[in-house]
Each structure stands twice: as C-alpha cells, then as structure tokens.
Amino acid sequence: MVRTIKSLGHYRGWRRILTAGAMSFVATLAAVLIVDLILVPISALSIVLAAAVGGLVGFCWVGTVSAVRTVQAIGALNTRREVALDSMIQGLCVFDSQYRLVVWNEPYRVMYGLDARGLKRGASLRDLLIARQAAGTFAGDVDDYIAALKDKIGYNNTFAVDIELPDGRTIAVIDTPTPDGGWIATHEDITERKRAERELDHTRAFLDTIIENVPSPIMVKGIPDLKYLLVNRAAEDYLGIDRRDVLGKTSARVFNAETAEMIDVADRQLIAAGGSMFRDEHAVVTPGNGLRIVTSARLQVVGTDNKPQYLITVIRDVTERKRHEQRIAHLAHHDQLTELPNRAAFNECIAATVDMANAQGDSFAVLSVDLDRFKAVNDVFGHKVGDALLHEVARRMEAVCQGAFLARIGGDEFSIITSVGPQPSSAEAMAERLSRIFENDIVIDSHSMRMGVTIGVAVFPEDGADASVLVANADAALFRAKSEARGSIRFFDMSMDTQLRERRALQQDLRKAIENNELELHYQPQANIDGTVTGFEALARWHHPRRGLVPPTDFIPLAEESGIIGALGEWVLRTACREAATWPKPLTIAVNLSPVQFQHGDLSTLVHQVLLETGLPPARLELEITEGVLIGDFARAVSILRRLKNLGVRIAMDDFGTGYSSLSYLQAFPFDKIKIDRAFVINLGHSQQSATIIRAVIALSRGLDVPVIAEGVETEEQRRFLAGENCAGYQGYLIGRPKPIADYAETVGRTVIDLASRARIA
After folding, report:
1. How far, in Å, are 97, 510, 538, 558, 565 from residue 552 at the CA level?
2. How many CB atoms neighbour CB 52 within 10 A?
3. Residue 461 preceded by cis peptide, ω within 30
4. Which residues on adjacent β-strands are paired with residue 161?
5. Cβ contacts of 557 within 8 Å, gap of 6 or more
6. pLDDT 10s digits, 307-323
7. 3 state DSSP class of 458
8. Which residue from 58, 270, 329, 443 lies 20 to 30 Å from 371 (Cα-Cα)?
9. ∠ at Cα 415 (412, 421), nearest 5°?
10. 581 three-class SS
11. What are phi and psi for residue 175, nearest 5 degrees?
12. How far is residue 400's CA from residue 143's CA, in Å, rounded to a whole number?
C-alpha cells in the first residue's frame, strides 16, 4: 500500500484519479436528476449526496486500477534489475550504514560459494563473512577485517584492494561509500588477468635478462629523435661508460663529433631506406674504450601505426680478434723469446732475396751462427738465465746486423742474410763484427758469462744458386767450423759439400741397416774389482756393405739427429735382452739409452714389453743414461726413470763427472750405479786432478751407498789404484774388449755342447 501511495503521488496518477472522480460525480448527478424528473422527486441534499458517493466510487475504482498497474510495473522493473545485476561480470553487494546487506547479485554468491538460502536482506557483514569462512572463501580474522573496512569507509573515499582466496583465486574489490553511510562493493575475479600479467612480467623479465646477457652490444634508439632508449651490459662494456650516461642522449652527446656524424648518417640512411643495414668492419672511437674495430647491424622496427618507431643496432666488437690475428701473424713469423724473425720468415726472406739478386745480378751471403758454450749456461744456471742470455745475444746481434736480415732458427742457432753488395768481403766483415761483440762478458742476474760464436758462410751464387742449396752449404761451413775450431769463421768450399753429401748418404744407409741385418751387438765385460765378471754392456756395431765397420761415434749421432735412434735403440734393447735370457749364468746386461728416447714414445712400456717377450728377469737388466737425459724436461725424465725402476730394472749414471750438474742429479734420483768416465781413468798416473776426482766420486758414492764402476781400465796399475780406493768394479780392455758373445761363451756359462746346439738352431 505504501508503494501504491507513493505511486499515486506521481503527477499522472493524481490527474487520472481527479478526472475519474469528476466524471463519476457528474455522471451520478445526471443520473439522479433524471430519476428526479421522471420518477420520484428527490431533494437537493439527496442529489448532492448521491453525486458525492458516485465521485468517491469513481475515485476508488480508478485508484485501485492504477495501483495494480503500478505494482505490476514495479515488479517488472525489479525483475529487469535483478536480471541486469545477475548479468554483471562482477559480483555486487550493497550495505547500509548499519553494515547490513541490502542488495547482492548472483555472481557475488557464486564467486564466494555462498548458499542462496543463507543470503537474505538485512544480513550483517559479520554473518556474511562467517558464511564465507564456512564456504572456504575467507581465511582472515572477521573482526580485524570489519575494523579495517570501517576505518577505510570512514574516509568517505572509494578504495580498492586485491584479496587472495584460499583456493588461489584473486578477487579485485572496489568499495564506494554512499551518502547514507553505507557502501557499494564490486568484486571481480582477476585470477586469469593476474596470471597473464605475471606471465607477461616473467616474459618481459626473461627478455630483459636475455638482452642484458647477450654477449653482443645492443642499443635501441627512438625514432625520430634518435635518443638512446636501451643499452645492454655488453654495450656498456663496449662503450666503456655507465649506461646512465647514454640513455636519453643522442650520439652527438655520447661520441666525439666524427664518430657521432658517422653513426647519424648510417641511422638516417636506414630510416630513409627502411628494412635493415649491415656495415662491415669499421673503426669507432668509443667514449671510454678508445678505438674499436666493429661490424654493425641496424634494424628498423615499425610501431602499431605502421610508422618507424625504434632503431636497433647490434654491434660485434672484433678488436680483440683483430689483435689476436695480428699477434698470431706476428708469432707465425717471429720467435717469441727474442722477437726476431723465425725460420718461416727466414725462408720467405731468402727466397725473395734470391729472386731479387737474380733479377739485378747482385750477390749476397748467408751466415749460419751458432753460440758456443750455451748448453753449459743452461745446465749450470738454468733455463731462465739461458733465455735471458738469448735475449741479450739477440739484442747485440741486431745492433751489428743493421741493413741485414737476422733470424733465430732455433735453440742457439741464428741465420743472417746480408744485404746485396761485394762478396765475400761484406760477409767476412759482418762475421768479424759479430765475433767482436762477444769479446766482453755478458752479465745475467749477477752471473758473468763468456760467450762466443762459430760462423759458417755461403755466398750467392757461387755457393748455391737457389735458397735451399745456399742454406745447406752455409750449414756445412758451420759444421766444419765447429768440428775444427769453436769460435772460428769458415766459408763454404766444395770439400765441405762432399763431406756433407757423404754424411747424408750415410744417414740414408743407416735407415736401412736394421732391416738389412747390417747391425750386430758386441759385449764388453763388467767385473768386480777382483776381476769376477758380473755382467756385460751391449754395444752396437754397424758393418756397412761398402764402408766396412762404421764407428759408433759416427753413426750414433747421425741416428739421434735423424730420429732413427728410436728404432735403433729398440733393436739394441730387444736383441740384448733376448741374448742375455739364454745365458746359463744370471749375469747382468747393460744397455745404453739415448736422451732422444726419453723425448718420444713410451719408453717404460717398451722396456716392459721387451722383458715379457724375452723372459729376462728385470733385475738382470741395467739401463745406462747420461746427464743429457735429464737436461731439458727434467720432470718428465725423472718420471720415466721412476717408472722404469718400478719395473725392477737398475738405472746407472754413465760418464759421471763430465757434465755440469751431475751432483744435483744424484740428489734428484736414486741411481743404482755410478760409472766414472774413462777420461779420468786414462789419466791416472799422469794427472793428479784425475786421481783426486776419482777419489771424490768414490767417497761420494760410499756416502750415498751407491756402487761405482770405473770405465776404460786398461792396466793392472789402474785397477790396483781403484782397488785401493775401494772402487766396486771396473770395465775396460784389462777385463775384456767388446766382442761377439760367442767369444765369451765360457764366461756366460755355455759349454761346447751348448754352442753346437745354437749353431744347429741358427
């Protein structure tokens, strides 16, 4: 009825009622008057009352009809309102000033999983939150939540908050206070939007991380102002300044004028042409890293309006690569220690010099230079001092070789190509100047050293019409000079060529000597000081088909120079062990090892295999090494010696006393035997120094508990001296010369029957 009255209060409602009442009044009055005239006279008061009653009836009828229609309209309006509210994406709820629920929609109920039967108008906020707790969509404290909400509404400002539901959903709530003290709240499920935002943030962070860590400098500019918007870490390192000093600035404010102009021209060209642009290696002066050599790729990025928006530049800094290439090119043609040209550069230079001399009809010379006593410096003072010495030698030689080409060929060998001019006088003058610069001592790390040079010279075209022949003949002259007199100067002559060719021919014949069965072993006895034979040393002999017996002093150095020593040493080891394994008496067999054998291959594995193949007990094999084995890669040599000794074989130091570091080597490795060089034994009776050295070595060996055997004992007098000094044993012509093992058949325990059996087997 209240809603009806309110409805009737509208202007159109009252107009209808008044009209209806007036019409009813007039109609009733007319009807009464007609009755009065025709049928029964009626008083005026009755007429008026009848008309009034008619008007009142009209009023009631019209009002009732209007109210019904109004209620129907309000119901339809409410239905449309509810449909509209339930069609919202957001949940909606309205509270009055008493924090009681006035309006809500279905999305709100569904969003929080509330029972429709439990929702009613007038429900308190507390009841609503408790219902949400029961539904599992509210996890906080009810009182704290209400207190916080009241505090925020009290400011009479709209406020928003994102809440996390226990099931993981995120709801965005916007509370808007109303004038009557209540508020309207909208609730929107933004879970997917938040997930998308997180994924977008993750993607952005991922891309930022990728771009930041790309090893190539990347810079992005805005178009059209061409100010830097992005600079990654690599670009920051490339520029050499903090990126904060770059961002928001143009090239002109970052680079010098010339570089900035170059960059701007390239940028403008790309903007005008569109697409992308690559620029090959070019120089850029960076603000913090100086001159850099780079390649650059530029790419124009179009915005959503299809207009150029960004310009991306990717830089590849090839400065270090260029430096490495230059360094590699330098190293390929220069010696790293002395910075002199190396063999490769020398070969190129001499080829070019030969061509030029041929074209101009000129002459020049090649000098092969070898340092004297350099090996002793390395042995005594170590390689660090040796390297410093080579550096100083190179400096002095450069000062002399002005106008000539000086190269370090390797080790302590140098080669010089003189400039064209009168020969051989120019070459001789240069060789003499080289000799004079070493007349004074060289001081390295407080060590004073006296050096010298031996020089071989070959002149173009007399001594060789092409580079290879000329160099070979200069080497031949050097070889002759070293053989005849260290510190001398020798020019090439044909006799040297003949000698060199013979040496090369002998070297070639040696390669075939093993397979042609031209090699054999002779055995020299080793004995206790009382003359009891304890073993033999195996010594290689070469019976050349044309030259006859070639001395070991000739073919062993050849084998070491050419690399044949590996195969030769293996043959000697295997043959000696096989022979010793057949001896009835368990005598030892000594085999010499070359320093070259320690530099190539697996020596310990070879010895182990030979022992297994031949069946020789390891304790019967004695390996003799010289000091040269330990010079060079000392650690590697000692490691190999230890592996050999672990096999059970014995290790002897041969030629003891002739080197420079023999004593230090005794300290570094536990040798099983020391062999005194024959040079000291031969001089017994003629040189007091030799006797003193032998006494010292024997005394040293006793202190180290290492037996000593003396080589080269040829007389009884020498043996008696050694016996008097308590020398353990000896070797030499006095006990026996090197001979085929058949000559020592009785010594090794073979009988006539044994010899006959071996002959039949052979």
Report:
1. 122, 12, 12, 10, 12
2. 15
3. yes
4. 173
5. none
6. 888 999 999 988 888 88
7. strand
8. 329
9. 155
10. coil
11. -105, 125
12. 101
Q: Distance between CA atoms of 756 and 762, rounded to whole angstroms? A: 10
Q: What does the alpha-carbon distance between residue 624 and residue 628 come to, in Å, rounded to a whole number?
A: 12
* Neighbour tally for 478: CB within 10 Å: 25
More confident residue, 53 or 655: 655
The helix (H) or strand (E) run that includes residue 17 is: helix 11-38
Give the up-direction half-sphere exposure of residue 757: CA atoms within 13 A in the CB hemisphere. 7
Q: Which helix (H) or strand (E) holds 5?
A: helix 2-8
Closest CA to 595 of 642, 557, 644, 647: 557
Residue 544: how many other CB atoms lie within 10 Å: 16
Q: Check if the beta carbon of residue 105 is closer than 8 Å to that of residue 92.
A: yes
The partner residues of 679 in beta bridges, in order of sequence, read: none
Give 181-231 as a DSSP string: S-EEEEEEE-HHHHHHHHHHHHHHHHHHHHHHH-SS-EEEEETTT--EEEE
pLDDT tens digits, one per residue of 730-748: 999 999 999 999 999 999 9
Q: For residue 40, what are its two tokens?
A: 């029964």
Among 80-84, 185-189, 226-230, the minimum mean pLDDT is found in 80-84
Q: How many helices (H) and strands (E) does the chain have?
A: 27, 26
Residues 428-433: contacts with CB within 8 Å, 24+ apart?
428/457, 428/489, 428/491, 430/367, 430/400, 430/401, 430/404, 431/367, 431/455, 431/457, 431/489, 432/489, 433/400
3-state secondary structure of 672: coil
What is the rounded distance in angstroms from the CA atom of residue 585 to the CA atom of residue 298?
88
Residue 42 has pLDDT above 70, yes or no: no
Query: Is-contact 522 541, C-beta < 8 A?
Result: yes
Beta-ladder partners of 91: 187
Give the tokens for residue 109: 């109920």
Helix (H, G, I), strand (E, B) or coil at 301: strand
Share of the chain above pLDDT 90, in %: 28
Rg (CA), the chain: 57
What pTM does this model have?
0.46
327 pLDDT more than 80: no
| Strand duo 413-417 + 442-444: pairing | unpaired
Judge residue 498's burial from the number of C-beta atoms within 10 Å of its C-beta, 0-12 exposed, 13-18 middle, 19 or more buried: exposed
**∠ CA 83-84-85, rounded to 5°:** 95
**Two tokens at 626?**
């010289």
Predicted local confidence at residue 5, as pLDDT? 36
What does DSSP assign to residue 133? H
- In 3D space, the residue among 350, 512, 484, 319 whose CA is nearest the CA of residue 416 turns out to be 350
232 vs 59: which has the higher pLDDT: 232
Q: pLDDT tens digit string along 443-456?
A: 888 888 888 899 99
DSSP line for 334-373: B-TTT--B-HHHHHHHHHHHHHHHHHHT--EEEEEEEEES
Cβ burial, residue 245 (10 Å; 0-12/13-18/19+): middle
Lookup result for tokens 């024959």: 678
Distance CA 578, CA 556 (A): 22
